[in-house]
Amino acid sequence: MKNQFKILKCMSVVSTITLVSHSAFAADAGKPGLPQLDVTTWPSQIFWLIVLFAIGYVIMSRIVTPRIGTVLEERRKRLDDDLAKARESSEDAAKIRAGYEETLETARAEAAAYAKDAAVKATQSAEAANAKLSKKLATKAQAAEAKLAKARSEAMESLNAVAVDAAIAATQHLTGIKATKAQAEKTVKSLAKTMTPQESN
């Protein structure tokens, strides 16, 4: 409505200028003063002013203004459609973002669970390997102790045999009496039993 009023105002100004110019050219050049101030021409000027104003009004109201209104309406609809599309796009983007965050949170939870499970399995594997190694070392230690005991027993037997021979030789050399092997072994064993507690201390 405001635009129509402005357009009509402009049309009236243009019509007035046109009428004044036309009256100026049509005035008698021989008469002094401005022709538009000649009172005898005012009725015709007013008539043509009304005619031009009516024609301009009809043209503006029937042709120009509806077309401008149609263009503005199309533009408004286009803007509304663009705004609706923008809102739909924003909602879609929000949904996609929510889905992405949900997927990311799920992936984080799965990764944490996987890491925790892997840590538990690694701990169990380490404990099993440690137990297996301890058992293997214990077995080797037992075998080494058995070998050591066997070697010690063999060494003691050899030492007893050497001691028996030495005792027989020493007795014969010192007393001239040849002791039997059984007597020498008995003597050595009794001495060995006597020495064993002393070595332990």
From TrEMBL:
It is found in: Cell inner membrane; Endomembrane system. Its main location: membrane. InterPro entries: ATP_synth_b/b'su_bac/chlpt (IPR002146), ATP_synthase_B_chain (IPR050059). Residues 1-26 form the signal peptide. GO terms for cellular component: endomembrane system; plasma membrane; proton-transporting ATP synthase complex. CDD domains: ATP-synt_Fo_b. Residues 97-161 form a coiled coil. HAMAP family: ATP_synth_b_bprime (MF_01398). F-type ATPases have 2 components, F(1) - the catalytic core - and F(0) - the membrane proton channel. F(1) has five subunits: alpha(3), beta(3), gamma(1), delta(1), epsilon(1). F(0) has three main subunits: a(1), b(2) and c(10-14). The alpha and beta chains form an alternating ring which encloses part of the gamma chain. F(1) is attached to F(0) by a central stalk formed by the gamma and epsilon chains, while a peripheral stalk is formed by the delta and b chains. This is ATP synthase subunit b. It comes from Puniceispirillum marinum (strain IMCC1322).
